[in-house]
Specification:
heterodimer; A: mainly alpha; MetI-like fold; 2 domains; 12 helices; 0% strand; B: MetI-like fold
Chain lengths: 273, 281
């Protein structure tokens, strides 16, 4: 008979915990809802020029302009599409080359002098990931002038963060025994890297690089907006000449290009890994 | 010793050199490498990239930073107008991520192969919608919505919504595809319809993961929100564009610094919140 009040106590404690959980959850929902109302008021209600927007039919009419696709533009898109893929590929390759120091400094187990080199690597990764590719492209257009080189550099710098972060994490997780084995037979640091570290992290790195290449196609398709060539430039021109059908055609071309990139990455991944 | 009786290895088997890649494999490998190098050099040639100027470029970039960008105009980014635009950016990212996730939950459900209500019709449509939302870059969404809806933050909110649909929809679908099918079958066996299966069989399993993905989506949306203003969709991107066009490089440097700091803060908040959610599991 003593067990029953004991159970009662536990049940009460459980129910009280549940009630408390419910209260916190309700509070969180309330805060979210209040923030939504406030944000909707400032961003959508106050900041929109409703007179210029007109009625619903006006909006539908301007969407309709975009739906009249200008198929005649498609043959002219081959060349910019090729440029876009080339910029993405060169940018990825350059990014892979230039992220080697970031990987070396950023993996805690191989970083040469962690108190100084590790923060440097983290800073490189954060800078690369937090600044948008459009901004990087603007910076490089200012530095090296209009053209594909600015796009390649922007893509390269933007890729460093992700590739370096994933690769450094892979190196931190690696099995130390092959490293010791190569050291034990008298291998120097370089040989340790080539024969013990690289074979272990290469599959991860190849996967990350292919994934990044896919993302870079998407990125390089818009760099033309700030003067780095490719499909973005055509998009910009179609938009500025108010050829809405052409704009949709370019977007379709970008979609096809990305589908192509996904197919290529699927087969390359299957062939290599 | 028995050395006379045993034969050495070289007498039994002919001398062989070890190679990591055997004949046909090695051929494909070298051909693939050759094709890659050929494509790269072709691209350098086709895009007219001046390789001879490439090394000098590092010096130029360094000069550019020290001469023009170096003392960032910190006063400019502590201006109340600029801070108001930062708050607007946060609001846009918040709304975009929220609307995007509201649309991405059903899309993730329809686009998860194991529980999609109709594998033949709804599944491919949901997949196509998610893929196209993700494939079109956020700046292109911003430009499109600005053209349709006019300048202002509404266009930015919708552009970020599309971006988040693509981002979260894919992650949600992958999360649902990895669930335990036992509870789903149990709910189905009681005669529940597809919606009830979603609410009682699927959702309780992915709730925590969805919250984590949601927080991460907000973080990514904030990074994207810093530039949608560039094309007239409100927020701090507009300040960036104005100063870039006016070649106010020190102000640009300050704005970039402020973006980096804000992204760091948002990353820290999102990591903290995700750890909290994972612990509350």
């Amino acid at each position: 008979m003593t067990a029953v009040p004991h159970m009662d106590q536990r049940l009460d404690a459980f129910l009280a915990g549940r009630r408390r959980g419910k209260t916190t959850r309700t509070l969180i929902y309330l805060v979210i809802a209040l923030l939504v109302i406030w944000s909707v008021k400032t961003t959508i209600v106050d900041d929109t020029d409703w007179e210029r927007l007109g009625s619903v039919s006006d909006v539908l009419a301007s969407i309709g302009n975009f739906l009249a696709i200008d198929w005649g533009l498609m043959p002219d898109l081959w060349q910019p599409a090729l440029e876009t893929i080339m910029v993405a590929t060169l940018g990825t390759v350059l990014g892979v080359i230039s992220c080697i120091p970031a990987i070396w400094f950023g993996a805690l187990n191989i970083s040469p002098f962690p108190p100084i080199t590790y923060p440097i690597a983290r800073l490189m990764m954060t800078l690369s990931r937090s600044i948008h590719e459009i901004v990087w492209a603007l910076f490089f257009v200012a530095a090296v002038g209009l053209g594909a080189l600015a796009g390649v550099l922007a893509i390269a710098v933007r890729s460093i963060g992700f590739i370096a972060k994933m690769s450094a994490e892979a190196i931190e997780d690696l099995d130390p025994r092959p490293v010791e084995a190569i050291r034990a037979v008298g291998g120097n640091e370089f040989q340790v890297f080539i024969y013990a570290i690289l074979p272990q992290v290469l599959p991860v790195m190849v996967g990350v690089i292919i994934f990044e290449w896919e993302i870079n196609i998407r990125r390089s398709s818009v760099l033309g907006l700030v003067g780095a060539g490719g499909l973005g430039l055509v998009f910009f021109r179609q938009l500025n000449t108010f050829n809405e059908g052409g704009v949709t055609a370019v977007i379709l071309a970008i979609l096809l290009l990305i589908l192509f990139g996904e197919l290529v990455s699927y087969f390359v991944r299957k062939a290599i890994i | 010793m028995a050395s006379q009786d045993t034969l050495s290895v070289s007498e039994v088997t002919p001398e062989r050199t070890w190679r990591r890649f055997k004949f046909p494999g090695s051929l494909y490998r070298y051909l693939g490498l050759l094709a890659a190098v050929a494509f790269l050099s072709l691209s350098v040639n086709y895009l007219n990239i001046p390789l001879d100027r490439f090394l000098g470029m590092f010096g130029r970039v360094g000069d550019l930073i020290t001469d023009r960008y170096y003392p960032p105009d910190i006063e400019y980014v502590t201006d109340p107008d600029y801070i108001a635009s930062v708050i607007e950016t946060i609001q846009m990212a918040y709304l975009g991520a929220l609307f995007g996730m509201l649309a991405a939950v059903p899309l993730g459900w329809f686009g998860a192969y194991n529980v999609s209500p109709s594998r033949r019709f709804i599944y491919p449509i949901a997949r196509l919608l998610t893929m196209s939302a993700r494939a079109v870059h956020e700046t292109i969404w911003a430009i499109l919505f600005v053209t349709i809806l006019g300048f202002g933050m509404m266009a930015g909110v919708f552009a970020l919504t599309m971006f988040c649909i693509g981002f979260a929809g894919k992650l949600f679908a992958e999360e649902i595809e990895a669930i335990d099918m036992g509870p789903v079958e149990a709910i189905r066996a009681t005669g529940a319809n597809e919606f009830k299966v979603m609410v009682y069989g699927i959702f309780p399993q992915v709730r925590v993961a969805f919250t984590g993905i949601g927080i991460y989506t907000w973080d990514v949306a904030f990074r994207a929100a810093t530039v949608v203003g560039f094309f007239g969709a409100g927020g701090m991107g507009w300040y960036l564009k104005r100063n870039v066009l006016q070649i106010e490089t020190q102000r640009v440097a300050a704005i970039l610094l402020s973006i980096v700091v804000l992204v760091l803060i948002s990353e820290a908040i999102s990591a903290f919140a995700r750890a909290k959610v994972a612990k509350a599991k």
